[in-house]
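Researcher: I'd like a structural prediction for the single chain below. Treat it as a standalone chain; there are no partners to consider.
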Amino acid sequence: MAPHKKLVKDLSNQHALTVIVPVPDEKIEGLRALLNAIGQNIANPGSPGAGSVKLERVRDYLPPSQAIPHGGKFIEFGRLTTVHFLRWVLLEPARDAAGGPIAASLAFSTDYDGPFEAHVNELVLVAEPALRTIYSFCDPPPRHESLQAYLSAHMRQEAAFYRGHPGRSTQQILTVDNRSEEELRLVLELELDRVPAPASAAPSIILERLRQATGRSRWKSAPSSGRPPDIATRMLLLVGLAGLTLLAMLYGVGTHLFEWIPARVLFTVSVPLVAFAFLAAVLNLLDRIEHRREQRLVEREGPPAQVDGSIDPLVADRSDVRLRIVTELEDRGPLVQNQMTHVVNVKPGMFRLALLRGVLATGNFLTHTLFVRGTLVGIPTIHFARWVLIDDNRRLLFFSNYDFSWESYLGDFIDQASDGLTGVWCNTTFFPRARIHIVTGLVRLTVLVLRFLPWFSWLPAVRVFAGGARREQEFKRWTRDHQVPTQVWYSAYPRLSVTNVNGNTEIAHGLFMPLTGDAQADWLRRL
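Model: Treating it as a single chain, here is the predicted structure.
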C-alpha cells in the first residue's frame, strides 16, 4: 500500500481510548473542583479561542505544588486534530453488588482517528502541562515517566464500541482550512441562496452550476476523506455458514440415533430449541431470585436521608444534588449533541459476568459488521458509544455521545432497541424485571437478527424479552439512578448531528460523480 493511501486509511479508522486511574479520598474534592472549572469554561463554537479553557478560569483550583502551564490557555481542545469527543468523569467511591467498597477513580475517554501512538502523542504535545496537573490528583500521579507510558499503563479495553459515522475523520467532518465536508455544504447552500434556481431548472444545470461554484471556492477534500464502510456481508455469511454447519453436525448425530429421516430433522431442530428454552428458564429463575435479593437489600439499607428517587441503595450518590447536576449538564445552549455517563454494578456470579461478556461481544461484532451505515438498530442519533467493564469486572461503565434530548434518546431505544438494552443491562443490578419468552424465544431471536439484513427487511418486528426496558418509566428511573455527572465534555463538531455528518459525506461524494436522471434530483434534495 502506498504511504499516502495508508495514511488516509489510518486517519479514517476510528477507535476508543479509555483510561481509568484511582483517586485517593483526600484528593477527590480538589479534583472535582478542577474538573468542574474546566468543563464549565470551554469556549463555545464561534467564540474566540473556541474549544479552549483560559488559565485564569482554573487558576484557583490548581494544586500549589504543580507547575502552572505557560501562556493564557490551560488546555486547547481545539488543537486536537484526531479527537471527535473527549471527556473526564470523576467516579465517586461506591459499593459493588455484594456491598464491597470501590475506590474513587478518574475516567478519561476519547473517540479518535488513526493509530493509537499518534493520538496519544498529540494529546501529550497539545496538553502535557494540563494532563500532568489533572493526574497529579491521582494515585499514582505521573512523575518522571512519559505521559504516553502513564496513559498506556492505565488503559482499559472496551467490551463493545459503536461508531455512528465510521470512516470519517474529524478533519473530514469539520475543519477550518476549506477542506471539510461541512464547509462544502455551506459553499453549495450559499451559491443556491445567492441565485435561487428557478423551479423549472433542470437538475443537471443546477448541479453543473454548483460544481463551478465549488471550483471558484477552491474547496478540496480532506486527505482522509472516506465513505461509510459497506456491511460486512462476507463475514455475516460466514457466521451464518457456521450456524448451518452446527445444524449439519446435529443432523449427523441424529443419523446415529434415528433411522426415520423426519425424526432426524426433528432432533436437529429441537436440540437448539430445547437448549435455548433451558437457558431462558434459568435466566427467568435467576431474575426472580436476584429480585428477592435486591428487595432484602433495600429493606436492610433503608431509605437515605436525602433521596433523588433512586431505589438502588448502592448508588454512590443518592442526593437530589447529583440528579440536578446530571440534568443541568444536558441540552446545553445551541448544541444539538448530548452526552451520557452511566455506571452500574454487575450482578454477582460468574454466570452473569460470562453472559454479559457474551452479549457485549456479540454486540461489538454486529456494530463492526452490520450496523455501519449510521444507524444502530434503526436509531440514527448516536455518534459514539462504548461499554467498559471496570473495577475488576464488578461494574459496567457506559459512555454515549448522541443527538437531541435525553427523553428522545431513551424513547428511541425503548421503541426500537429494547431487546438490545435488556440483553445487556439485565445482567446489572436493579434493572427492571425482564422475562424471556421460553417457547418462542429462539424463533423470535432469529427473526430479530434477520430483519436487519437487507434481504429480510420485510420480516415483522418481534420482541425476545417481556418487561425489561419495555417498562418505560421504571427503565428511565433506573437510567437516571445510575447516571453520573460528566464534568468535562468536548466535541469537535458540537452543532452537527449524525444525520448531518453522514449527509455531508453523500453530498461531497456525489458532487463530482457522473449522476444522471433521478440520481441528480436525489442528490439535490440533500441540500
